[in-house]
Specification:
Blueprint (H helix, E strand, L loop, with lengths): L2 E8 L4 E5 L11 H6 L6 E8 L7 E8 L3 H13 L4 E7 L1 H10 L11 E8 L2 H17 L6 E3 L2 H12 L1 H6 L6 E4 L2 E2 L2 H18 L5 E4 L4 E8 L5 H20 L15 H8 L1 H14 L2
Antiparallel strand pairs: 1-2, 1-3, 4-6, 4-7, 5-6, 5-10, 8-11, 9-11, 10-11
Length: 291
């Protein structure tokens, strides 16, 4: 939705242009989204026209911990239902917070509990304060603790920089590992249920798999830590855990991938998600543009 238009080179060598600078158009097929969603399998993109967004007048970031991962996920749904202008909402489970604390030196240690990272924006400081008050109430309704605010730009940058290092921090939980990052997305109404079941599944499997997600759009990841020398039994447990996660996601009305794309690993789930008819339609499009 952030791509307004493209210039692309097809397999035949033909250069095509899609979309444009207008805010909307209903002319012809939506080739822009077709090419963007094709993951590079239909054309090579050489130019992209993107939407620009204004910087907000006032911004504040906060963290809030919860008794359980499901409680934190329910809070996210509550925030959106109440219309709180949340520009970012990230959710980390307790093991991800433990990794966060060990890795980050610029941010004070957080309580090792499921934690929500929020950023609220508005047209003025007063508007942000009003939104923050509603956010506190929504989180409290789901068992959330006290908010820890970061209002200055430097504080916010440190907080989000530490959050974005979660992958590397997670690797330190099991030294010598590489991360197999899962990618699932579900309707917000099912996020608490699916994340809670996934956390319980990780614990039952006896593997290391911190969970974090872009909770505002129902997208979450589990970083499954794998060493080259791990026994086949451990590798199989990780594989089965990932399979159960995808099947659980699809059963909840979600998608096998929210942002990472299909690739080799997710091909087998496309028919389950869309049906054979839709997958054959994709093949037909591919054959017509790249015979």
């Amino acid at each position: 939705e952030n791509c307004l238009g493209l210039t692309a080179v097809l397999a035949s060598g033909e250069v095509v242009r899609t979309g444009g600078r207008a805010r909307k158009s209903s002319a012809g097929y939506d080739l822009t989204r077709l090419l963007v969603g094709s993951e590079g399998t239909l054309a090579v993109l050489t130019e992209v026209q993107l939407k620009l967004y204004p910087l907000p007048a006032a911004v504040s970031a906060a963290t809030c911990s919860f008794p359980t991962l499901s409680d934190a996920a329910r809070a996210v749904a509550g925030l959106l239902q109440c219309g709180v202008p949340v520009s970012r909402s990230e959710l980390l489970d307790a093991s991800a917070i433990a990794a966060f604390n060990k890795y980050s030196t610029e941010v004070a240690d957080l309580q090792e509990a499921p934690t929500l990272f929020l950023e609220v924006e508005g047209v003025s400081e007063a508007a942000v304060e009003a939104a923050a008050a509603v956010a506190r109430e929504c989180c409290a309704d789901s068992g959330g603790g006290e908010f820890q605010w970061a209002t200055s730009e430097s504080e916010r940058r440190r907080l989000w920089a530490a959050r974005h290092a979660t992958y590397y921090a997670s690797l330190a939980l099991r030294p010598g590992s590489r991360g197999v990052v899962t990618d699932a997305v579900v309707p917000l109404s099912r996020l608490a249920e699916v994340m809670g079941e996934t956390a319980a599944d990780v614990a039952a499997a006896g593997v290391v798999g911190p969970i974090f997600g872009h909770a505002g759009d129902g997208n979450f990841h589990c970083i499954l830590l794998l060493r080259d020398e791990d026994p086949p039994d451990y590798v199989e447990r990780l594989s089965q855990l990932n399979d159960r996660l995808i099947r659980r996601t699809l059963a909840a009305g979600g998608s096998c991938t929210g942002e990472h794309g299909v690739g080799v690993g997710k091909k087998q789930y496309l028919a389950r998600e869309f049906g054979e008819g839709a997958v054959e339609m994709m093949r037909t499009v591919k054959r017509s543009l790249d015979p």
